[in-house]
Design goal:
By secondary structure, the chain is α/β, with parallel strands linked by helices. The protein has one domain: P-loop containing nucleotide triphosphate hydrolases (Rossmann fold, 3-Layer(aba) Sandwich). The protein has 13 helices and four strands. It has a four-stranded parallel sheet with strand order 2-1-3-4, with helices on both faces.
Length: 299
Amino acid sequence: MPSPNSSRLPSRVREYNGPLTRGARWDHYRPRPGDIVISAPAKSGMTWTQAICAMLIFGRADLSVQPARISPWFDSNFEPLAQMLQRLHAQTHRRYLKTHTPLDGLPYHAEVTYLAVYRHPLDAFFSAASLATTMAQGTVTPRDGQSRDVKSFMRAYLTANFTKGLAEQMTIGALAHHFKGFWDHRDLPNIHLLHYADLSRDLAGGIRSLGTTLGIDIDDAAARAMASAASFSSMQKDARKFAPESNGSWKKPDDFFRGGGSGGWRGVLSEDDISNYRRILADVLPDTAAARWLENGSS
């Protein structure tokens, strides 16, 4: 299906700012040919994708580096800008950067590969809710003081208005906006959409496919070794290597991986809850083919 904006290149039309995000930092981004920018809503597969990219770039499953450490969250305020830029400039390997910013807040460069990663909206929500209960602050929603009850948190997730330019919004409207930007430009040769469900179904195949996308050839044996090292259980076991930088946000590195499963919401939400979610998803993402892909990937 052709994308409606395939003849129009993306452009950065706004800055996204929030407690952790400083959109103006993109003013200082100087791309190198081959750079990879990974963008994803929260808890949608960013850390997984960073780990796979590291394995492909370094050509080995047994990494001696911390994938998230050498792949900084470019527009976060976790690290002084000058220090981060110096660290990136010194890297001699193929660089891969992290951001949660939608496409309309990112500079577009033809020589950069953009990977956008998605997950079923309810799985992303429940994973975020699970992580929030383990955060060092001990609150589910430390920014707005909502109830600790997951269904109350979910009502806010489904009904809160999305504001363009406001970063770190944990709402279905924000997720849909992020998705639509990349979905509408998916025919561009340097924009690629990945789905958590596809990786879960066939991780070795997904790694081989991503290698092809990045122009990196690996054989079946290497793909299987990387899939074993990038499995949920392996990454959780070696959480100190694979967990992202948190600036002290959660108590232990392995807490980050507690919400890595799929479909857990089916035992928590009622039929009415699920119907309400589907109604709101149809409002924010009326394209049924797009909504189906957002939920399930290529299946």
